[in-house]
Design a protein that fits this description.
This protein has 13 helices and ten strands. With 266 residues, the protein is an alpha/beta fold. Bound molecules: the ligand O=C(O)c1ccccc1NCC(=O)[C@H](O)[C@H](O)COP(=O)(O)O. Keywords: Amino-acid biosynthesis, Aromatic amino acid biosynthesis, Decarboxylase, Lyase, Tryptophan biosynthesis.
Length: 266
């Protein structure tokens, strides 16, 4: 499947969604919700702790469908999926909250977080500070900022908003020029997405090429197309110890066993 401009299409409907959400709940009221939300759980610090104890850190994704694969999982109950991931040894959760392209929902994120003790990433296409506050109001511990979708000013403003609300930020890149821009931001976490946004093809070589260019004080997350422990070992040789995995786990009926298997040699 080839989609020449998926981010432009997504931005168009996101801007409409944001306008509608603002009409339904003005920013000042949303902000009051965010101030009352449960405290952030420390997404980055949880990953660092996992590394300190000598393990790989898995960010396990709750992903029902995707533009490249269509429907991935029919048996879909976010609290049970989240509990299974936690039992299998995941360090953190990622929950897709975009509806039109991923059949996601903010309710799924809230429910997954409430069912576990794990920190949660709101996995969505964030263009506006309203979405950052909305993420915190619904309990997110971390947000994703996609450099391919944002100019430097917007990335800086959205990151500042997330940090002001006590959340961590995962800055996502696909190539050298996005990496250069990401390194001007304050966030410690850089996600290298192995999925080409035009062709949707995943290639772990993307992580292997870009990881050595990232300063050692940043935490690197390899995202997309990761299927097995051998992939983790391969990526670890490029200095990566944190992995964001969705589809390959979501296709397994026993998620706890599949998560354990992904994280262990045998
Ligand atoms: O998953 C897609 O098809 C997709 C298409 C266009 C933009 C983003 C997309 N996915 C978002 C993600 O980054 C992944 O859900 C995440 O990295 C997990 O990937 P995977 O393990 O390959 O499901």
């Amino acid at each position: 499947m080839t989609d020449p401009d998926i981010l432009t299409k997504i931005e168009t409907y996101k801007r409409e969604e944001i306008a509608a959400a603002r009409r339904a709940l003005p920013r000042a009221e949303l902000d009051a919700h965010a101030r009352r939300a449960p405290s952030p759980r420390g997404f980055l610090s949880t990953i660092r702790k996992k590394h300190a104890s000598g393990g790989y850190a898995l960010i396990a994704e709750v992903k029902r469908a995707s533009p490249s694969r269509g429907l991935i999982r029919t048996d879909f109950h976010p609290p049970s999926l989240a509990r299974s991931y936690e039992a299998g040894g995941a360090a953190c959760l990622s929950v897709l909250t975009d509806k039109p392209s991923f059949m996601g929902d903010l309710d799924f994120m809230e429910a997954a977080r409430a069912a576990t003790n794990l920190p949660v990433l709101r996995k969505d296409f964030i263009f506006d500070t309203y979405q950052v506050i909305e993420a915190r109001a619904r309990g997110a511990d971390c947000i994703l900022l996609i450099m391919a979708a944002l100019d430097d000013g917007a990335a800086n403003d959205l990151e500042a908003a997330a940090l002001a609300y006590g959340m961590d930020v995962l800055i996502e890149i696909h190539d050298h020029s996005e990496l250069d821009r990401a390194l001007k931001l304050r966030s410690q976490m850089i996600g290298i997405n192995n999925r080409n946004l035009r062709t949707f093809v995943t290639n772990l070589k993307t992580s292997e090429t870009l990881a050595p260019l990232i300063p050692k004080d940043r935490l690197i997350v390899s995202e997309s197309g990761i299927c097995a422990f051998t992939d983790l070992e391969r990526l670890s040789r490029a200095g990566i110890a944190t992995f964001l995995v969705g589809e390959s786990l979501m296709r397994q009926s026993d998620l706890t066993t599949a998560t354990r298997a992904l994280l262990s040699k045998n």
